[in-house]
Specification:
This protein is of the alpha/beta class. One of its GO terms (biological process) is carbohydrate metabolic process.
């Protein structure tokens, strides 16, 4: 039976989205800029969607990176639309900011007396891009505490909520294995000082937790990995920290603390926290001092340890203006780093982060793949058309990052209960331009013994079990499959930067990837029936180098990556 991980929760309810839209728009107009990621040479069109009560004639802007005066630009009404959610008319207003011919952060307000600490919208003018190396990345996601302890397997405990001993040395000692998979980027779960086994509640942003190692271990990992052509990305948590963090303790116990405004306290001294978890107080990143502290912490590990970037936890939590400053500040100093966000939201909402980070984890694709390959919920034509449309929707303005499972979801194999489905879903994943992630253990058939959502509770520990290093507990054939898949993707750029074109074959998944003189046909049979396929040409199977001329039999739950030889 198909298990829905319910990754989007209330976001799939129209009423929730409608109420959120109304609430946001009543506070501040919805602002869109064209182009979405402007350069110093661009004229910038600023479009406002406003309620009838939001009557503006002028916008005010300044360049944050300079001591410039506030500039004024007039607003013109361009259109009036009817909105069913508001059951009212909305105004579409427009303003033009001329080319500035210099880089910087633009901060816009709608009232010259507005507090720039609160009521403003920002974007950066720059020429930053995702580093070229990121396009070729194959990411291996390691949950450090459960991966390996020095050179040994982490022992399973009855208490899965405690630290089990995995450490940085365990990652170092398995670099040869990771390299053999064709991996060129490692994403580590948080390694900063924390009492929890997962590390998402940070006590000190500038220290490594002793349970996971020390700074020398991290330096060795970065250096040893880089010698193998592997980059290290850390998991960074800007939205919240541990209640044991000395900064929060000072703010909690002293109303006159200089850190008091770094958090959102109420009159009774209660405070905002991550999903109401009081051990994880939320950082007020509208406060510029708190913002600077977090950005400086991120820079510290890049500058001193050669970290290649960050996976940004719960990126929808911080104020959107924080991400403008984070991205501009770090990319200005470290342009070759890569920063991608965990944004569990609609694609429409995700687009707000264009120009504010290099990439995003594509949770919509995660849902789409599971529903199609396991749940059989989508018609083939509709499924492939959605894949095509999403590229047009994002317009290559932000890197999309794909995954079949992670530390917050049931493992794909647990839900599918069929290795063949995992393999064909992986073929599909590795044939897209999206940067693919393998969650540690996925490649060896690691599984779980209970449903993570059992009893309507998210019991994440079941998908964070120790990795089995005893080969008798590994699916060696599956490991070899992933090695081949990574090698094929690396050797054929059409797979990671080719144009996506719908294929000619009915009743199965088929699409072309085309780049320069490479034309690759991907065909996947996600049915229980054998299919006789007519191929118009000569093709080579990149898994086994077998040549096919015109005819091909594809078995149930089987997939091929075929190089066209005669086009």
């Amino acid at each position: 039976m198909y298990i829905d991980d319910k990754i989007f929760g209330d976001l799939e309810k129209k009423e929730f989205l409608s109420n959120r839209k109304i609430e946001e728009l009543e506070k501040f107009p919805y602002i869109e800029i064209i182009p979405e990621d402007p350069t110093p040479k661009d004229e910038i069109k600023v479009i406002f969607t406003c309620t009838p009560s939001q009557n503006y004639k002028t916008i005010y802007y300044k360049i944050k990176s300079q001591t410039s005066e506030i500039q004024e630009v007039s607003i013109e009404i361009k259109d009036v639309i009817w909105d069913n959610d508001f059951f009212s008319f909305l105004q579409i207003l427009e303003a033009q900011i001329p080319p500035l011919n210099k880089e910087g952060i633009i901060e816009i307000t709608l009232n010259p007396e507005d507090d720039y600490e609160k009521d403003y919208f920002s974007f950066s003018i720059d020429e930053f891009e995702p580093p070229k190396w990121s396009q070729e990345s194959i990411i291996y996601h390691i949950f450090v505490d459960r991966f390996a302890k020095d050179n040994f397997e982490v022992s399973l405990s009855n208490n899965l909520k405690e630290k089990l001993g995995g450490n940085i040395k365990g990652v170092i000692n398995h670099l040869d294995y990771i390299e053999s998979l064709g991996i060129n980027t490692i994403w580590l779960s948080p390694i900063f000082k924390s009492t929890s086994y997962h590390g998402y509640d940070i006590e000190d942003y500038f220290e490594i937790d002793p349970a996971w190692g020390n700074k020398d271990d991290l330096k060795k990992l970065v250096n040893d990995a880089f010698e193998r052509g592997i980059r290290i990305i850390l998991d960074f948590v800007p939205n919240h920290l541990s209640y044991l963090n000395p900064i929060f303790q000072d703010a909690l116990n002293n109303k006159d603390s200089k850190y008091r405004n770094w958090f959102i306290f109420k009159d009774d001294n209660s405070y905002e926290s991550f999903f109401g978890v009081k051990s994880m107080p939320q950082i007020n990143l509208k406060n510029r001092e708190a913002r600077k502290y977090i950005i400086d912490a991120a820079k510290y590990w890049i500058k001193n340890f050669g970290i290649s970037g960050y996976r940004l936890d719960y990126a929808i939590g911080p104020d959107i203006n924080f991400w403008t400053e984070y991205y501009y500040s770090i990319k200005r100093d470290f342009p070759e780093t890569f920063h991608f966000g965990e944004i569990v939201d609609t694609p429409e909402y995700v687009r707000r982060f264009i120009g504010k980070m290099d990439g995003v984890l594509d949770f919509y694709l995660f849902k789409l793949i599971r529903e199609s390959f396991i749940g059989k919920k989508w018609k083939l034509k509709e499924f492939l058309k959605i894949i095509d449309l999403r590229y047009k929707f994002y317009k290559n303005h932000i890197r999309l990052i794909s995954f079949l499972e992670n530390h917050d979801s049931n493992r794909f194999l647990f839900v599918a209960n069929d290795k063949r489905l995992l393999k064909i879903a992986s073929i599909f994943q590795f044939s897209l331009n999206d940067i693919p992630i393998i969650y540690n253990g996925q490649e060896m058939g690691a599984n779980q013994y209970r449903n993570m959502l059992e009893g309507n509770r998210a019991l994440h520990e079941y998908v964070r079990l120790p990795i089995p290093w005893d080969e008798t507990k590994q699916d060696l054939e599956l490991i070899e499959f992933y090695k081949k898949l990574s090698r094929i993707r690396k050797n054929y750029p059409a797979l990671y930067k080719g144009d996506f074109t719908l294929g000619p074959i009915k009743d199965i998944i088929s699409f072309y990837k085309i780049y320069d003189d490479q034309k690759i046909l991907v065909i996947i049979n996600n049915t229980k029936d054998e299919k006789n396929i007519y191929l118009n040409g000569v093709f080579k199977n990149l898994f086994n180098n077998k040549i096919y001329k015109n005819d091909l039999i594809i078995h149930p739950f089987e997939g091929y990556i075929l190089l066209e030889l005669n086009h």
